[in-house]
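Good day; I would like, with your permission, to put a structural problem before you. What I wish to show you is a protein chain and, alongside it, a tokenised description of its three-dimensional fold. I would ask you to consider whether the tokens describe a fold that such a sequence might reasonably adopt. You will find the record immediately after this paragraph:
***
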Amino acid sequence: MGELDEIYSNYAEEVFKYLMCLCHNADLSEELTQETFYQAVKSIDRYNDECKMSVWLCQIAKHSYYKHLERNKKQQRHMFQDDSSHTSPEAEFIYSEDKIALYRIIHLLEEPYKEVLLLRILGGLSFKEIGEIQLRNENWARVTFYRAKMKLRERGQDNNGQ
């Protein structure tokens, strides 16, 4: 247990700062930092020293943040839906299938395209914020996002047989 305490004391501040860059909310960053270390403890046996511990923890933090964003989107959708505006089960199925297909295509993109797309679409971050996270500038983020969209279009057309 002492080793886990040492990992937490060495990396918690770095993970917190990374999450602050993503969400700009101290309370949420603190909550997600705790979630990150919880997930890290659960999967510590999968850490294989191929990357630095801080990089591994920040990857877990990023995924925790994306999960948080997805949960919030679902909650907001449910809050704004009323009984009179329910769509048909068929329409909901088509929507969910399209969404799954889109996420599959995004998942296949190489970095940094995948991360820029997710930060922009799921995270709702500005190009300036994305540039800061990637240690680049705003223009780089804009160009990368544009190129990622072009790659999505190409792959989407390939999947549709067009």
User: Anything to note?
Assistant: The first helix runs from residue 2 to 23. Residues 20 and 148 are 25 Å apart (CA to CA). The chain has a mean pLDDT of 81. The helical segments are 2-23, 26-42, 53-80, 89-108, 113-121, 127-133, 138-160.
